[in-house]
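Figure 6 in text form: structure in, sequence out.
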């Protein structure tokens, strides 16, 4: 039983192994490859904490459904991904999430977190207060749906009287939760460690606007009326963007904002409570919504984990000695 797992090393002297699976939307398919290699190498986690897509993969693994999830992920095409999105108008997000939830229920219906064979927690964020919510009991599918409810994309989920959304807003890589649930050695999977352009501080930058380039008109503004038309046209070009300008679109702004937020929060949280080993798949070329690239993403997760096997063995050996 999930809640019956004691804190401290196991009876055989082996330290409890915890796995913190971070958020990152489609990049999260890499978690499948991570778990495959860890299992093959004999490093079976006793505690799993997951945020967003990390909660989905971790929950499926804990329930014994990782092969089914891997089969589903690798079957996705761009068209099928779009077909799974139940777009709607008038909600708190662009996507209702009902179709994705029904897919999870196909294999996880009836599963409760407290009845899972290993300790598991899904991280969510409370709308309004910003509280970090640890979902440690209750229906598994509902907890996963709340943990990946990305603001503006998915509708928030109401559980236990609280409106919940994506846990990556407060804890993108939940090392703290894995330790709190009894893990002696914590391995984390940071899906954002390879992102290009990691933020720094630019201390001197001018606030002057870029020079405005106005194309020549065939009709010269020889009157006040024509001059007014020219000014209106110039203002309209400023609103919709000019052909010579690389103006970001709505989707690009949302994705970049989420990437930046996750990266900054991850660095802060990991500095305060570092894992024993961090696995960082090289996912810089993967977009947040490249769900159709599962095979490539899973393989990158495998490769990153193989590179860390010696470090994992050393961390476990060191913890065993200390114990």
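Output sequence:
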């Amino acid at each position: 039983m999930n809640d019956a797992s004691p804190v401290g090393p196991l009876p055989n002297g082996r330290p409890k192994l915890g796995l913190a699976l971070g958020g990152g939307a489609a990049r999260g398919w890499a978690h499948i490859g991570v778990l495959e290699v860890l299992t093959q190498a004999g490093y079976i986690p006793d505690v799993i904490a997951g945020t967003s897509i990390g909660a989905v993969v971790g929950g499926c693994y804990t329930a014994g459904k990782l092969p089914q999830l891997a089969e589903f992920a690798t079957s996705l095409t761009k068209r099928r991904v779009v077909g799974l999105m139940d777009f709607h108008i008038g909600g708190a997000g662009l996507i209702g999430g009902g179709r994705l939830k029904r897919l999870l229920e196909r294999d996880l219906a009836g599963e409760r977190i407290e009845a899972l064979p290993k300790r598991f927690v899904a991280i969510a964020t409370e709308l309004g207060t910003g509280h970090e919510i640890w979902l440690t009991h209750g229906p598994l599918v509902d907890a996963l749906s709340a943990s990946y409810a990305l603001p503006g994309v998915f509708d928030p989920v109401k559980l236990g009287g609280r409106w919940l959304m994506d846990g990556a807003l407060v804890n993108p890589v939940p090392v703290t939760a894995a330790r709190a649930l009894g893990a002696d050695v914590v391995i984390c999977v940071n899906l954002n460690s390879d992102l290009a352009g990691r933020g720094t501080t630019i201390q001197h930058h001018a606030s002057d606007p870029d020079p405005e380039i106005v194309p020549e008109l065939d009709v010269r503004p020889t009157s006040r009326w024509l001059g007014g038309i020219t000014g209106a046209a110039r203002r309209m070009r400023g609103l919709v963007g000019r052909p010579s300008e690389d103006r970001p679109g709505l989707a690009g702004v949302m994705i970049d904002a989420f990437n930046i937020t996750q990266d900054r929060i991850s660095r802060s949280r990991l500095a305060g409570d570092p894992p024993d080993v961090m696995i960082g798949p090289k996912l810089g070329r993967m977009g947040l919504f490249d769900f159709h690239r599962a095979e490539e993403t899973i393989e990158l997760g495998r490769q990153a984990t193989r590179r860390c096997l010696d470090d994992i063995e050393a961390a476990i050996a060191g913890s065993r000695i200390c114990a």
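Caption detail: The mean pLDDT is 82.
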